[in-house]
Amino acid sequence: MFSRHDQAWLNSAGWAAALDGAAPAHAQALEQWRAHDWPLIITRRTPDALPGTVCLGLALPPDAGRKLRIALQVNENSVARADHPLPLHAAAAAAPERWAAPLAALLADAGTISLRAYGSLALQAVTGLTYLTESSDIDLLFKPASLPELDAGMQLLQTHAAHLPLDGEIVFPDGAAVAWKEWRDAAAGTRVLVKDAVSVRLVSTDSLRELLA
Asked: Which parts of the sequence belong to the Phosphoribosyl-dephospho-CoA transferase MdcG C-terminal domain (predicted)?
């Protein structure tokens, strides 16, 4: 099953179909990704997506402040393989020097808490292209398996956000994802904005915590 933010590598038929249906302005970027066998990123399904298709995105490095994102739909058989987002320790190698020591401290304090990176830091690590700017955030995915782990992970993120521009999501066992900062600021029993593979909706914090009970 494909999840938002997962990496997806296309097979030759998938790339051929993607290029065949691409806008002329996007062809060069797609050819570059195919030539390097870089992954695309799985996104939320759009309302027009047909059964058996996968929605993907390709984000190019910022160009004069502009961020171009190419949306694709391919047959699920076009995906040669998929994998979770990069572990933070793997993505950290691409971080600028100003983040090196704070990231090392975050990873040391994380212990058994698993953090994965997506967004600009992960893309720079995977491609070697320059995605990070002075205003970039560090987008993290945190998938707690229990209430104690949720609370420990939130404490970890809040502590290290004092030294790093941390952003990202908590992903609950059913795939529901909540911005960790929104979760931090939400009062018990209130509703938060949830994103999953197919929708965006409001869900109570209590019902999300019950998934971990």
From this structure: 88-204
**Same domain, residue pair 110 and 31:** no
Identity of the amino acid at 113 = I
Exactly one of 137, 151, 174, 185 is catalytic; name it: 137
Domains contained in the chain, number: 2
Condensed to tens digits (0 to 9), the pLDDT of residues 159-211 reads: 999 999 999 999 999 999 999 999 999 988 899 999 999 999 999 999 999 99
Q: What are 20's two structure tokens?
A: 């065949």
Last residue within a domain, chosen from 29, 54, 83: 83
Task: Report the distance separating Cα 3 and Cα 44, nearest Å.
Answer: 8
Query: 175-182 long-range contacts, Cβ below 8 Å, gap at least 24?
Result: 175/3, 175/4, 176/203, 176/208, 176/211, 177/4, 177/141, 178/208, 180/140, 180/142, 180/154
Last residue of a domain, one of 34, 64, 83: 83
The reply to whether 137 belongs to the active site is yes
Give 15's DSSP letter: H
Domain that holds residue 186: 86-210
Please give the C-alpha separations between residue 130 and each of 118, 141, 206, in angstroms, as whole numbers. Answer: 15, 21, 40
pLDDT 10s digits, 99-126: 999 999 999 999 999 999 999 999 999 9
Whether the CB-CB separation of 212 and 144 falls below 8 Å is answered with yes
